[in-house]
Amino acid sequence: MSNDTSSLTPQDLEFLRRPLHGFLSVAGGPLPPQPRPVWFEATDDGTIQLFTAPDSLKVRRLRRDPRASIVVAAPVGERERWVSVAGRATVEPGGAHDLCTRLAARYWDLDDPTRADDLAGILAEDQVRLVIHPETVSRYTY
Predict the structure, then answer these.
(1) Residue range 10-43, pLDDT digits in tens
(2) What is the pLDDT of residues 104-129, one digit of tens each?
(3) CB pairs under 8 A, 24+ apart, for 5-11?
(4) Ranges of H-type helices in the chain
């Protein structure tokens, strides 16, 4: 395991650009963090972004305490590997629908009419973009 960096390496970015689920945790609640599986995108500038409803619990918590983390692990059947990114998260009003469209194409077959309808439903709702600015990046590769 390596904890000696505050930025994503090229190997991290290659791994994080696969269609894997991340497990997002945010601070700010009376209980321990409750990780949730999420779609995400690792950007060229080294941030991690995802989208959500502007009134979601994670947004309300991040407005009180901007600490967040995401952990992404290789699926069963592959050698053990994970990357964890922790840092300050910002709530950005713009770009969420574009992000959602890119991620839907990454995670779903949009030629499937059901999935295309699912995407249209998401895009019909207000969304915000959450951006995690890495302060600590940990990783493990077996």
Answers:
(1) 999 999 999 999 999 998 766 777 899 999 999 9
(2) 999 999 999 999 999 999 999 999 99
(3) 5/137, 6/87, 6/134, 6/135, 6/136, 6/137, 7/46, 7/134, 7/137, 8/42, 8/46, 8/83, 8/85, 8/134, 8/137, 9/137, 9/139
(4) 10-16, 57-64, 96-107, 113-123
